[in-house]
Amino acid sequence: MRAIQITKLEGPEAIELVDIPAPTADDAVIIDVKAAGVAFPELLQTRGQYQIKPELPFVPGAEVAGVVVAAPEGSGLEPGDRVAALCSIGGFAETTLSSPDRTFKLPDSVSFEAGASFMFNYGTVYFALIERGNLAAGETVLVHGAAGGIGTAAIQVAKAYGAGRVIGVVSTEAKGEIALAAGADEVVLADGFLDSVGRASVDIVVDPVGGDRFTDSVRAMREQGRLLVIGFTGGSIPEVKVNRLLLNNVSVVGVGWGAFAMTKPGHLMKEWDAMLPHLSSGALAPVIGPSFPLEKASDALVCLEQRAATGKVVLTV
Ligand SMILES: NC(=O)c1ccc[n+]([C@@H]2O[C@H](COP(=O)([O-])OP(=O)(O)OC[C@H]3O[C@@H](n4cnc5c(N)ncnc54)[C@H](OP(=O)(O)O)[C@@H]3O)[C@@H](O)[C@H]2O)c1
Prior knowledge:
alpha/beta, 2 domains, 15 strands, seven-stranded mixed β-sheet, binds NADP nicotinamide-adenine-dinucleotide phosphate, six-stranded parallel β-sheet, Rossmann fold, Quinone Oxidoreductase, Chain A, domain 1, 11 helices
């Protein structure tokens, strides 16, 4: 089969298109890959900078969608099923393996590109808003990095699960258009966002950005608000003066989805099943960015590195 391999840790330009035997295993689902999601960890892996460091050479690619070729008995999967899967590695290839409890039946209405763009971002955000943040109907949610992968997913999950008002925080007007298209009720610019939304005006803050806007996020929360800490794309890890939490009875809540969900048997499937009606209805619809053929995987990773993409970068196989 054709596959992309990391053979040396010299960055995205050094990855290679190779012809290798297709993987096989009796206890795994064998998937004919149609699309693979491209994410930051794969970029880091090309330099050996990610915490998961498989032995060289290896095929990267953690999230795919495709068609089942073979599945273990009792897995509930059959050859021919359209699926999305979290395969950890091996996804940038014509064939990959996935464990049955990380392989999800894809509704016919959902494209392979969307299937390969779903579970990482939406699983994280479902865990954040519903399981950690206890989103209640009618609440106001403020989303930082609202045009990004996590941000657009957060807007859609918040709306699908009954948020009253969703405000996207973005750095440019063009990103504001993306957040509005994803379903935000309004957008405000990151610069001076607290003046735009007002103090004590939101119930939940979704924060994949961190950095110097953190204190203003705390100020933006109403009594009993929850600030969901997801990531630090802004560069620095913020600190909070805890008296600010006491004064208005607000919470700062850590969200670490992968390590939690992947080590609890059945947890990923529970999240998938919970979101499935909204995925089928189109309420949860990943914003797809540029798409590259498998052999252009290097360009896809460079695109990610240069922050040139809006929406999920996808490889088609
Ligand atoms: N905790 C978890 O379980 C979990 C799971 C998945 C991902 N994450 C993390 O969540 C973060 C966001 O992921 P994502 O896929 O949404 O990324 P993304 O699509 O690149 O979006 C991140 C957003 O951050 C904003 N940003 C602000 N300052 C930035 C800077 N200096 N450099 C880059 N972006 C900056 C950008 O929006 P503006 O330009 O509009 O400000 C950008 O749209 C990452 O750190 C990722 O590792 C955490």
